[in-house]
Design a protein that fits this description.
- This protein is mainly beta.
- 7% of the residues lie in helices and 50% in strands.
- The protein contains three helices and 22 strands.
- It has helices at residues 5-14, 17-21, 202-205; strands at residues 23-26, 36-40, 43-46, 49-55, 61-69, 80-88, 96-106, 109-119, 124-127, 136-145, 148-155, 160-167, 175-181, 184-185, 188-189, 191-192, 197-200, 212-215, 218-221, 229-234, 240-244, 254-258.
Length: 262
């Protein structure tokens, strides 16, 4: 049976005790707006993002909802990272309102965490929020007005939920994204963790209404917007690191495949 968005509200209410238990702290790895390498019509090559974005006119994006399956990363002795998230802004501007999960390979072991970010403020980890490979994650970002955003993150598999609000000065609300990212550490782009294949959207997670955006009052799957743009992650030399698939026939789902580290 497919899950409905009504279940999300029930879970948030039922699991609000997590808000009191969660400890928040700054993430060593930081997520950022897209670093553009070059672009052609309908496709962009980026140094840090892979996935799909829906660019829009300024101040028209009021929501985004995504779902994905936490990938199992393959670790070596090299320290590597990968983040999966949904958010508003960052495609054409200098803020991002986002939340998701981070996988880090360090010392041959994998570590998983949940986080949110009101960039340019640092990313914040949600301590006590368990994340494991194979978990089905839901993320939504909604504009509340007066520069304030609500972020909700739900792990259906672990039965956990987190929600918070924050303000971002100068947010243009000009894009919505479902993204896989290699973050920075100490201001430098990290090596991309080997995540195999990452799965985004309702066709893979059974969480309805994802990857969807609300733009100019219309809530639709990403593929329903004519401006939807595929983003391929590459190195400084143009070598492909992560390649998205085409969008599914309903415009809501896609995969991203690991090609190389850097």
């Amino acid at each position: 049976m497919r899950r409905s968005l009504e279940i999300l509200s029930i879970m948030v209410i039922a699991l609000t005790l997590l808000l009191g238990m969660a400890t928040l702290y700054t993430v060593k790895a930081q997520m950022h707006p897209m670093i553009r390498y070059y672009e052609v019509k309908g496709q962009v090559y980026s140094l840090n993002w892979a996935g799909y974005a829906v660019p829009a006119e300024e101040y028209t994006v009021t929501g985004v909802a995504s779902s994905f399956i936490v990938p199992q990363v393959t670790c070596t002795k090299q320290t590597t990272y990968v983040a999966l998230w949904a958010g508003i802004d960052g495609y054409n501007d200098s803020t991002v309102e986002q939340a998701g999960i981070l996988a880090e390979c360090s010392g041959g072991k994998a570590y998983y965490s949940a986080w949110y970010e009101f960039y340019p403020s640092p990313s914040v980890t949600i301590s006590g929020f368990t994340v494991k490979p194979g978990d089905h994650i839901y993320v939504s970002v909604a504009y509340l007005g007066n520069g304030e955003f609500n972020i909700t993150l739900i792990d259906y598999t672990e039965h956990e939920a987190f929600s918070t609000t924050g303000s971002v000065s100068g947010a243009l609300r000009s894009s919505a994204e479902c993204i896989l990212e290699r973050p920075t550490v100490a201001g430098q782009l990290t090596a991309l963790a080997n995540f195999g294949t990452a799965y985004f959207g309702q066709d893979y997670t059974d969480i309805q209404g994802t990857c969807y955006a609300t733009i100019s009052g219309s809530t639709e799957p990403f593929g329903s917007f004519s401006s939807v743009t595929e983003i391929v992650m590459v190195t400084n030399n143009g070598k492909v690191l992560a390649q998205p698939s085409s969008l599914s026939s309903d415009g809501s789902s896609f995969t991203v495949t690991y090609i190389g580290s850097r």
